[in-house]
UniProtKB/TrEMBL annotation:
A Pfam match: NDK
The entry's keywords: ATP-binding, Cell cycle, Cytoplasm, Kinase, Magnesium, Metal-binding, Nucleotide metabolism, Nucleotide-binding, Nucleus, Transferase
Gene expressing this chain: NME6
Protein name as annotated: Nucleoside diphosphate kinase
Family per similarity comment: Belongs to the NDK family.
Transferase recorded as keyword: yes
Species name: Amphiprion ocellaris (Clown anemonefish)
Amino acid sequence: MLLTAGRLSKVLQLTLAVIKPDAVAHPLMMEALHQRILDNKFVVVRCKDLVWRKQDSERFYAEHSGRFFYQRLVEFMSSGPMRAYILAREDAIRHWRELMGPTKVFRARYTSPESIRAQFGLTDTRNTTHGSDSVESAKREIGFFFPDFSVDEWMEKEEPSFRSGR
Ligand code: GDP
Ligand code: MG
């Protein structure tokens, strides 16, 4: 019975992961981050490099408009190239957020020294990576970065083989 419950809790998920401009500026850091993704059993479903206009940055982070760091964040996110990934694995959203560590770099260094933000983050704004925080935001954010990608279609195709372990 317990075993069945354990199996059922293994849910295949997609998440949006973004390497922010501070990290993309450093090729060795990019290589290390890509390796961390692979070492943590994520499957790279899509990957692309892009540069945001200021309006894209404002739209993506609209939930934070009015916060003291909003302008800084918007400027930073449109300051240079980024790399966006659609990542898949069991419980992908939580695993990627755990791997990134807490939002604030100094907090990350004290509480999760192995995390990406602890090891590579520069400041609370320039904190290396983004990750979706729920199934709903993952779907919305994947649509924002990859408008031609359908989460539902991908799930329909891949989920049965994940469940049967093939
Ligand atoms: P995340 O989901 O961990 O990325 O954190 P949030 O959604 O709360 O914030 C979005 C982004 O805004 C963060 O990744 C940071 O780049 C920036 N940010 C959030 N909180 C702060 C803050 O207190 N100070 C500064 N400077 N930037 C912040
Ligand atoms: Mg967030």
